[in-house]
Fold this sequence. Notes:
Elements: H1 10-13, H2 19-32, E1 38-39, H3 51-61, H4 76-90, E2 99-102, H5 104-116, E3 122-127, H6 132-139, E4 143-148, H7 159-165, E5 170-176, H8 188-200, E6 204-208, H9 224-227, E7 235-240, E8 253-256, H10 259-272, H11 278-289, H12 293-314, E9 329-330, E10 340-342, E11 345-347, H13 350-361, E12 363-364, E13 366-367, E14 377-380, H14 385-399
Parallel strand pairs: 1-12, 3-4, 3-5, 5-6, 6-7
Antiparallel strand pairs: 2-8, 7-8, 9-14, 10-11, 13-14
Helix pairs in contact: 3-11, 4-11, 5-6, 5-10, 12-14
The structure holds 4'-deoxy-4'-aminopyridoxal-5'-phosphate.
Amino acid sequence: xxxxxxxxxxxxxxxxxxxxxxxxxxxxxxxxxxxxxxxxxxxxxxxxxxxxxxxxxxxxxxxxxxxxxxxxxxxxxxxxxxxxxxxxxxxxxxxxxxxxxxxxxxxxxxxxxxxxxxxxxxxxxxxxxxxxxxxxxxxxxxxxxxxxxxxxxxxxxxxxxxxxxxxxxxxxxxxxxxxxxxxxxxxxxxxxxxxxxxxxxxxxxxxxxxxxxxxxxxxxxxxxxxxxxxxxxxxxxxxxxxxxxxxxxxxxxxxxxxxxxxxxxxxxxxxxxxxxxxxxxxxxxxxxxxxxxxxxxxxxxxxxxxxxxxxxxxxxxxxxxxxxxxxxxxxxxxxxxxxxxxxxxxxxxxxxxxxxxxxxxxxxxxxxxxxxxxxxxxxxxxxxxxxxxxxxxxxxxxxx
Length: 400
Ligand code: PMP
């Protein structure tokens, strides 16, 4: 027995704790102590899951066949619903054999990179990025290569930037539109141009479309493999029901990709988790087949809150908040508040600023550091209108 052996593997030691879940947990802990904390941390809709989805799940609970193991890659009825949904929402024709049902979109990201990457493969990662991406790329042995786009370019990377970050080791690009954390949405022309560049250089693209239905101002956008059929053999779509149907806790996502890649990812999943919970899968199928009315209602509420949060944040001296066009996050720059003293506390970083706001205003926001973008804060506006106004109002008072 060697005492020098580390207890935890280097691979897992290198993973950082999820900063978004950490902020949310700290906010909940303070609330449990009786503090009136308002949480802008969690990326989850505040609405209950629509009733027809819950009813489908209740019925599934009573069916003995759902008390058993089912195929690791997903229930046939859910895969068929995903095929129909992809045709309806993206005009993209796929077959059930191109679908793997996963334990949420997060697990889909993990499965995609674990299946695609060999040690040393580089993945171009538009930054600010969603916290989980670099960790799942590294866990698969890959190297995330950050490509930064700030608010002066609407947080959207250009083909020129991607091209200058590309090397002979680049295997894939990760695209997220609408984006968490910035709410940026790529136009059809931008998606088309990035797709053409990827085709030209034989790159894979993992495209995370989990916020596809939360796009505002009537902006037209599209799914990458729909606008670039010539990329379909090297494209993996990540999606899920969490954000669209207020189903974060049900844990259902999926990947769509070429048959060989999906078969390989299914093999991995058959040893890692087996099938996703059957009741959740039936609920997801009911969500996908149940139309988009509930989504439209949620979207209307998000649209209203977006205006409130952006207007109120821009009234805080030192905060500059661009208007996001999708998802449910505002991502203001707080650089003008840094390097200064607030209430006798010297604040140098956005991370310190987030702690200061939590300690002095009982408001939780996630620092930009969590997304590879120091100098910003992320506010999820998927919370009730009153709480939202009260929370940003407290920040106005703190710095006003
Ligand atoms: N992709 C993005 C961009 C996200 O923001 C999230 C949730 N924060 C997910 C994927 C994963 O969602 P889930 O695992 O809950 O389906």
